[in-house]
Amino acid sequence: MIVNYTPHPVRIYNSDRPDGIDDLQPGLRLVIEPEDVPARLQVEPLEAYDRDGIPVEVVRYGHAYGLPDESTGVALIVSLPVGLALASTRTDLLVPYSEVRNSAGTVIGCRALAQPA
What we know:
This protein is mainly beta.
């Protein structure tokens, strides 16, 4: 079983689905709806400064929260930052891979899932 802990539905498309199509249906294999509470990374502000008139915040990304413990036979779809942060400690995390984009370049789905290593 695969469970979605991103804040959005994850649409899985056939590998030959081209980019640039606004219709969500062509090549759509599966939609995995999100859980009620997505997984997130804790953010710790460290300092703030100005660079060329633009405010810059120095932050540390820490503990991931909103994920259940690992369970046999269950994989969790998470955002790439969460997947990368936990890649060394968990083997049950998957991230969207080979994104599908509409005509405006917005990601609308993916062709596969990846396991961060």
